Each structure stands twice: as structure tokens, then as C-alpha cells.
């Protein structure tokens, strides 16, 4: 068996075209362009690269991009004041705080300063709670992208057994909740799961989100299973690989996301889609 490749780059292109049209329609109707404020602390090269990627994405679809880079010696108080001010700025529709923060900063305190209706990363407790209640509003972008790949490729989810390997608050847990909403029977596995291989082998849909390269191998996957790999791991030789051993799993699975080129490209479009969603909600005066 040779697995169908769930091509994130191709889907991201389609989604950007759809989003560009939706943004244009929003601007024509309201006279206002959706805007995104990215808040980060200087000194992190990865953060700088990510911000450039988001800026380019905004420009492609017609979203206004604001860069709020704080000096490397900034304080928790200044960070919180910045986020609070942006939350009250009616010209800003979405706020993205680049995480993780440098050592010494309290991310939870900072996130609490973001208006949950502008929380385009879906990390505010308000949005996390809505997702848990089955009333999602701002969905974390990475799992949202994974679900989009499944749905757009007509992968059956209802009634399927899904195993999510990883329990982070930004990928594993929200992905499990999204699969539950689509009526899958979901198991969450993690580093303390006994006999991980047997748990994974029971699944019709396998989701890997651990940050451990090559953790899921072909002998752990049921023939015909669908595999979604959220892992992004840089090896010593510079290669970027996922949490799944692609070569062995692709011989067993019916469909699989590659790394790179799978979930990653879709993630950034989901972020921009959340910005438009935030602008729509604020235009309607939605609160609570």
C-alpha cells in the first residue's frame, strides 16, 4: 500500500484564495480591513522568521499587519500593558503573542491580558473553554489546519477510532476535542502511556504531536489508517522531519501528511482566517 499524500501546500493555496475573496467582500461591506497585531520580544531569530511569514501572508490576502516588537530587556509589566492596550484598540481585530516567551516571563498572565475575541491563536482560557464545551470560536491554528486537511480530503471521521499521541494545550488536546466534535471515538496517548504501540495500532486515525522525531513507526500503524503528523523536528544534519517515520508508515497507511509540506502550510492560513472571524465578530458587537 502506498499512502495518499495529504498535501498541505496545495490546500493552503486554495484556502488563501478563498480567504482573499472573503476579506475583499468584508472590506467592501464594512469599509474596514481586518488587522492583526503581532507582539513579540526581540532577540529570537525563529520569532523574526515567523513574523515575516505572517506579514507576507497578511499582505497576500489583504489583512493589515502590525509589528509590535518589544526590546529584549522588556518587563512582564510592559508586555502586559502592550497586550492590554491592543485589546482596547478598536483598529486592531486580532492579537498574536509569539510563544514561547523568554525565560522569566509568565505566559499565562500575558495571555490573560488579550481580549478573547481578538485571541487569534485560540489560547485564552475563554476560547479553550468554548472548545471544550463544543462551542468553538477561536480554534488553535495547528489543530484547525489538521482538521481542514482531513475534511477537505474527504477522510471519514464519524465513528472512527482516533488516537492522538500528545497532550499539549495548543495541539494534542484541542485536536482531540475537534475529532470528538466530528463524532470520532478518541484516545489521548502520551509519554506515560503503557504499550504505546498497541494503543496506536487500534486507531483508524493516528495524530502525532509529541516533538519526538520518528516516534511512530510503520509496525505501530494499522494497515489503512490515516496519519496526521504535527511534528517539526530539526535533526543534526539539518533535515526537518516529523514525529512519524514517514518511509515506513507511508507503506502501511492509506493517507499521511508529509513533513515538511503537510500541516505546517495550512496552520498559517488558519491563523489569518481567525483574524477575519475576529473582525466579523467585533463588527457585530459580539461579546460573551
What's this entry about, in short?
The chain is α/β, with parallel strands linked by helices and 288 residues long.
Description of the molecule:
42% of the residues lie in helices and 15% in strands. It is an alpha/beta fold. The protein has two domains: 86 residues, Leucine Dehydrogenase, chain A, domain 1 (Rossmann fold), CATH 3.40.50; 123 residues, 3-Layer(aba) Sandwich (Rossmann fold), CATH 3.40.50. The strands form three sheets. A six-stranded parallel sheet has the order 1-11-8-7-5-6. Strand 2, helix 2 and strand 3 form a beta-alpha-beta unit. Helix 1 packs parallel to helix 10, helix 6 packs parallel to helix 7 and helix 6 packs across helix 10.
Features:
288 residues, alpha/beta, Rossmann fold, 2 domains, 6-stranded parallel beta sheet, 3-stranded parallel beta sheet, 11 strands, 42% helix, globular
Task: Give the helix/strand layout.
Elements: E1 4-5, H1 8-30, E2 35-41, H2 45-61, E3 64-70, H3 76-88, E4 94-97, H4 107-112, H5 125-132, H6 141-152, E5 161-165, H7 172-181, E6 185-189, H8 196-201, E7 205-208, E8 226-229, E9 233-234, E10 240-241, H9 246-250, E11 255-256, H10 263-283
Parallel strand pairs: 1-11, 2-3, 2-4, 5-6, 5-7, 7-8, 8-11
Antiparallel strand pairs: 9-10
Structural class: alpha/beta
Strand order of the largest sheet: 1-11-8-7-5-6
Write down the CATH class of the largest domain. Alpha Beta
State the share of residues found in helices, binned by percent: 40-55%
Spatial gap, N to C terminus: 49 Å
CATH fold field value of the largest domain: Rossmann fold
> Which radius of gyration do the C-alpha atoms yield?
19 Å
| Count, helices | 10
> Main β-sheet: number of strands, strand sense, barrel status?
6 strands, parallel
CATH superfamily of the largest domain: NAD(P)-binding Rossmann-like Domain
User: Architecture of the largest domain, according to CATH?
Assistant: 3-Layer(aba) Sandwich
Mean pLDDT: 95
Extended strand count: 11
General form = globular
Low-confidence region ranges: none
Order of helices and strands: EHEHEHEHHHEHEHEEEEHEH
**Structural domain tally:** 2
What proportion strand?
15-25%
Amino acid at each position: 500500500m502506498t499512502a495518499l499524500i495529504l498535501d498541505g501546500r496545495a490546500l493552503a493555496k486554495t484556502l488563501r484564495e478563498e480567504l482573499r475573496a472573503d476579506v475583499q467582500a468584508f472590506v467592501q461591506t464594512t469599509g474596514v480591513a481586518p488587522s492583526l497585531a503581532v507582539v513579540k520580544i526581540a532577540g529570537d531569530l525563529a520569532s523574526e522568521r515567523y513574523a515575516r511569514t505572517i506579514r507576507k501572508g497578511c499582505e497576500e490576502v489583504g489583512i493589515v499587519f502590525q509589528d509590535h516588537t518589544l526590546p529584549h530587556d522588556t518587563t512582564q509589566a510592559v508586555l502586559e500593558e502592550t497586550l492590554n492596550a491592543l485589546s482596547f484598540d478598536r483598529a486592531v481585530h486580532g492579537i498574536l503573542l509569539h510563544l514561547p516567551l523568554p525565560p522569566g516571563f509568565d505566559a499565562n498572565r500575558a495571555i490573560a491580558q488579550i481580549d478573547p475575541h481578538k485571541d487569534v491563536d485560540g489560547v485564552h482560557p475563554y476560547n479553550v473553554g468554548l472548545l471544550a464545551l463544543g462551542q468553538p470560536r477561536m480554534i488553535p491554528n495547528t489543530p484547525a489546519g489538521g482538521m481542514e486537511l482531513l475534511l477537505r480530503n474527504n477522510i471519514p471521521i464519524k465513528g472512527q477510532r482516533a488516537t492522538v499521541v500528545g497532550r499539549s494545550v495548543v495541539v494534542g488536546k484541542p485536536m482531540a476535542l475537534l475529532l470528538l466534535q466530528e463524532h470520532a471515538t478518541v484516545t489521548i496517548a502520551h509519554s506515560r502511556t503503557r504499550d504505546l504501540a498497541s494503543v496506536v495500532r487500534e486507531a483508524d486515525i493516528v495524530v502525532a504531536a509529541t516533538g519526538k522525531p520518528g516516534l511512530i513507526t510503520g509496525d505501530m500503524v494499522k494497515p489503512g489508517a490515516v496519519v496526521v503528523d504535527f511534528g517539526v523536528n530539526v535533526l543534526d544534519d539539518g533535515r526537518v522531519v516529523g514525529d512519524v517515520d514517514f518511509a515506513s508508515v507511508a507503506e502501511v497507511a492509506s493517507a499521511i501528511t508529509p513533513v515538511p509540506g503537510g500541516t505546517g502550510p495550512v496552520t498559517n492560513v488558519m491563523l489569518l482566517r481567525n483574524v477575519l472571524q475576529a473582525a466579523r465578530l467585533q463588527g457585530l458587537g459580539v461579546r460573551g
